[in-house]
R13L1/DRL21-like LRR repeat region domain-containing protein (Dendrobium nobile), 137 residues
Amino acid sequence: MQSHLPLPPLTKNRLVTFEIYFQNLTKLVFADIKACNQLPSLGQLPELRKLDIDGATKVKKIGPEFFGSGVNSTRIAFPKLERLHISSFSELEEWSFVTQVEQTTSSRLKFLPCLHTLEINICPLLKQLPKGLENSL
């Protein structure tokens, strides 16, 4: 059964946090989100297993904000995510898990512990995957 839920509002060209709205969400598909220049914070959705994002043509960077607020030494970003599909990010240049300042403590953070499928298509400017992603696959 597919249901269409009302989305949180757009704020400053990005979607506001989802973690307070959709705690039991297991699959999320974004298509043609051309108005957003930053991805929403999704990393703290506790039940999310499949995430497809297609057509985020203005996003230039995927950074720590994508993994959710409050990711620290006791939190896990995307704790149950098994499949991540990113496609048609024509401006995406950079993807990182943490900011430069946080890199010294990043070994204590956990990202995507259940990920077994990662698909990246049509991201011509993306030069490399984030450090630490190989530990998630």
Remarks:
- The radius of gyration is 14 Å.
- The CA atoms of residues 44 and 113 lie 13 Å apart.
- Residues 10-16, 100-107 have pLDDT under 50 and may be disordered.
